[in-house]
């Protein structure tokens, strides 16, 4: 049994007593996220992200494309990776060369490393910990897309934000390739000298899409 299979077996065992209607309950929770993600919850997420040295911009849904283009222009990003399923209106105004990644034509590690950045969506965000979670769904792509390029521009909708980790876990499928991001990649040596960009992007920029009034 591989390590992955062993971990999944443990997850299945832990969930053995979960009621059969759990998927329906999970969907109900997801449907009601928007009622919990307004006001203080978004403020907490923004503050946590800023604490982690991420760049954060509050935007309205109709401004995502324009704000993404502005962020990429400030960065000087001319070649940007986009995963399958990313809304066209987010990427089309970008003014950069878009490098499409797909299962049939995946970009090489060399291509990803040479790109100026990546633009993605997310699955869930946790306000309390300032964590953004990708699960490989539409607009997120495979894990390498958010780990190899030095700059990650991520769009987080208000209805994807939950207060704490337990809520996020209930919404996620443990069988999917989950990437948990809490700020830019960073580590420190024994003298606590901070080094960024060692095992992920050096810069994380977030467009936090506020709920409609």
UniProtKB/TrEMBL annotation:
Residues 111-209 form the LUD domain. PANTHER family: LACTATE UTILIZATION PROTEIN C. Signal peptide: none annotated. InterPro entries: FTHF_cligase-like_sf, LUD_dom, NagB/RpiA_transferase-like. Residues 18-38 are annotated as: Disordered. Pfam families: LUD_dom. It comes from the Bacteria. Residues 22-35 have a biased composition (Basic and acidic residues). This is L-lactate dehydrogenase complex protein LldG.
